[in-house]
Structure formats: C-alpha cells, structure tokens
Description:
With about 425 residues, this protein is an all-alpha fold. The chain has helices at about 1-10, 95-110, 110-130, 140-155, 160-175, 185-205, 205-225, 250-265, 270-285, 300-315, 320-340, 355-375, 380-395, 400-415, and strands spanning about 45-50, 65-70. Mean pLDDT is about 75; it is low at about 10-65, about 70-80 and about 80-85.
Amino acid sequence: MQLSKALTRPYRSLTCATPRAAAPRALSRAAPVSIAPSAPSSFAQYSSTQAEGKQGKQGGLRQGHLLSLLVCAGLGVTIYSILEFYSSFTTWPKEVRDDLRLAIKCRNSGDYVKSEDLFRKALETAQTLPPETLKPTPLLALTGISVSLATMLESAGRPAAALRVLEPALSSIVSLREDELLPAERMRAVAMSQKMGDLALRVVSDDVAEKYLEWGVEEMLKMALAGRKIKGEEGENLLVHELQLPKWITRTDLGAALEALGAVYARQGRAQDAVPLYIQALTLLMPPPESRTREPTKDEKCRAGLLMNNLSQILTSHPSTANLRTALTWADKSVDVTSAAAGSPTPSAPEDSASILCGQTLAAGLFNLGVLHEMLENPKEAKSNYHRSIEESQKVGLREGVREAKEALRRMEQAKST
C-alpha cells in the first residue's frame, strides 16, 4: 500500500535486515474481507520472547528472555461509540426505541441471550425504516446498533460472533464513494476496521487482522493528507508528527492505529515494517522538541516508554551485537522516560491509569535492560537492573516481573558456580 510504504521508509535504516513476508491483498472499499471464524484464543496481558544467538569462542551471545507489555490496540470511544453516547433514547424512532432500551438493560444485568435477541430485532427493524427516520446520520445510527451488539457479544466471550456482526456494518460504509460520506462516517469505518483487526487476531489469523488494520491506517492518512499525493516505492517520506490532522482525527487515534499494525508486523517477524511504525507512533506521542506545540502528558510519556520497551524486544529477534546494542539503547531510553514520567505531578489519584502503566513499563524495561546486559556479557549491570526490576515490579504488583527477575538472578548465580 502506497501510504504504508511512505510511513516505513524514513526509519528503515534503524531496523535489522530480515526477510519480509509478502503483504496480503489490501482491503478494498468495495469488498471487505470475508471471515470464517476459528476457535477463539485469548491474549495475556504480558508476553515474553526468547532471543537466541550463536555462541562464539569467547562466549558470544546467549539466550535472553525478554518481558514485553502488550500495546493497547483499540481506538478511543470518540469514534467507536456505542448507544449510551447518544444524548437520549428519544432520538431513536419509536419502532426501535423500546427494544434498544431493553437490550441494554438485559446486557447490564448479564442476560446476554435476551440482549442479543433484542439488539438483532432492533437492527433488523431499523434497516427497514426510511432513512429520514434515522436522522441526522442514518449510517451512524445503523452502524451504532451493530457496534453495540458486537460490544455485547465480545463482553459475553464471543469475539467471533462480534466480528461477524461488524462485517456487514463496515461493508455498508466502504461500499460507498468517499465523496458520499461524512468525515464522521469515514471515521466510524476506521474504528470498526481497527476493532475487527483486534478481533481477527484472536479468532482468525494475523494476515486477516493485518488487512483490517492496514486499511484503517490508510484511510486515516488519506483524510489527513486531504488530496496531497504520496508516491509509493519511489516517493517522499511521510512523517506523521508533521501532519496537520483534521479535527475529527486525534493523535491518539492515529497513534493507536499505528501501534496496532506495528504489533501485527512484529508478530509476523517483520521487524523492517514493525519498527518504523512504532517510531512513527512514538513521534506522535513525543514529537521532536522543535515540532512540539505543548509538553507531552504523563500518559503520553508512559505510552511512549512502553513502545520503546517493545522496540527493544523486536530488535532482539535477530540478536547480532549491533542489534542488541540498539535494543539496549531503546530499553535504556524507556527506563529514563518512564522514570521521569512516574515522578511527574498529576492531578489524578496515585493509582490512575498513567501511573500504573508507567510502573509496569518501568519494571519491564529494567528487566529487559538486565537481559540485554547479560547477553552482552555485562554481569554487574545485569544484576543491578534485575534487582531494580524486582523492586519496581513489587510496587505495582507485577508478579511475572518479580518471578522472571528472581529466576534470572538464580540462573546467573548457578552459572557462576559451575
């Protein structure tokens, strides 16, 4: 895809040379991907990866076990909105009003079966009504019911069913010409494609998820560029922090989309594609000083630190000495950024989400610094960071961090005695 190539080009020199898998066919406006759900699988909050290197005569590179916090892959509720965000049920036609009200009441009480029946009944009824009864935006009204039904199904532990509900809703928007759509309708399509990518990761495949996520990124960039042409293979670089985003696209929305797509590339072993997208997302959270109009918030700094930590994890998938030193730089920067952000004042309570994220990212970053120093045969620095990781993990209740760091220290002591 042309815009995706322009996004990855500026930072390709920072990634290791790895074989690139062929990208699947892009999601077209006229024909969204057809899904055949498979057995669902759940995501853990944390994941770990092993970096292996060949051992040379002087000891060389050893195996490392890195801790990685998963990046949140959804867009904000500003564009993936559900029925409660409507000002009042009185805005809905009387033909669907009671069914929608009762569907939400049943969902809130845990009666998912009845809630599903009522949502589907309301959707079927709404689809038969004249468009003028669903004013001011019939497409948003209809897809809003679908989104609410899908959200309920996901809460009920049925992500594959949620994905099937969103498919025709997305088709109803992307089958129209761009000039027939309002910005809010295009952003609803983007939000649904991002959510469908997240669901597809869990119940279908990485390749299907990639199609949805790539389409969402491309669509947002088309709106942000507003007619400016980007040439694919041979054209200019695209730096997202320099874009003048329209008011209906936030930096958070675009950054989350880039993070999600980068995470899929990383899962596929495509470091050359993943690393540039992570860096682009980083520049949205923490733009270069000369490009800033304000100081990044605590939450933005913590998310940036998380991305830096996961960048270091990606680079260890092909652990040459050069890649490991680059990974060490990112892990070190992650610790610096999150340490500073964790100590910055905030009007929120001590247990606000930014503080929790900072604490968890700091603990993971310190552990990964220990692993990287151990792989580069710096045992003193490795032990110091493992001990600090245990302290920070205990502060935020990150049990896996405590367990992994203690195991690393035990392993180092055992190796020393043999």
